[in-house]
């Protein structure tokens, strides 16, 4: 399918291009070179239309202000008619919405899909969080970005301490408050290999201090790993230990 040509009529969810080799066409036609500007090579085992739709979602996810049909057409390297069809299909599934000005944005349906990711992320992070909580003797947590908030998706409490901060999965707070959110913001401002760790005192709870380090190098995941403890100050070793735990979680998620 060339960018300037209309999509072929879908059959049972598959384009006719995807069915090459299933009819009277020779076996040699099973791999079709559909290389065009901004498209790449598509074989009979992949769907060019699906690929374009996913690219639309990624482009919209990377912008706060949405994109017009013309802007999407330019970035995808396809004509406006193709973009209109892609957006209409994505809108039917609530994955895209268009405002009154015609700009396309990510739809609320993406949130429903995103919620299914949290259990997978939580499971991958738990071993490192358990080790961190036991080592430091403080409540360890994995926090992810949820809009303008920091959302705790996994929390592990130490088993051997008499007292610790009660911090629960599902707890949220503004990114600008608390070590977990501030660590994420620091990584946004300083996209370097090691932005270090962030310390806070009493920002979320009086008498509690926090230390957190951002997750780095995990595509599609923006978050941090940290601890919260009943202390007026965080011991120096805690900061480096949190950085190590964040690195372990990032490796588990890659």
CATH architecture of the largest domain: 2-Layer Sandwich
The overall average pLDDT, rounded, is: 83
How many domains, as an integer? 2
Q: Write the CATH homologous superfamily of the largest domain.
A: GAF domain
- List the helices and strands in order: HHHEEHHEEEHEEEH
Instruction: Indicate the overall shape.
Output: elongated
> How would a crystallographer describe the biggest sheet?
6 strands, antiparallel
Terminus-to-terminus distance: 33 Å
How would you explain this protein's 3D organization?
This protein starts with 47 loop residues before the first helix and ends with a helix. Strand 6 and strand 7 form a beta hairpin. The protein has two domains: 92 residues, Arc Repressor Mutant, subunit A; 138 residues, GAF domain (Beta-Lactamase, 2-Layer Sandwich), CATH 3.30.450. It is 36% helix and 17% strand. With 254 residues, it is of the alpha+beta class. The strands form two sheets. A six-stranded antiparallel beta sheet has the order 5-4-3-8-7-6. The chain has a two-stranded antiparallel sheet with strand order 1-2. The protein has seven helices and eight strands, in the order αααββααβββαβββα.
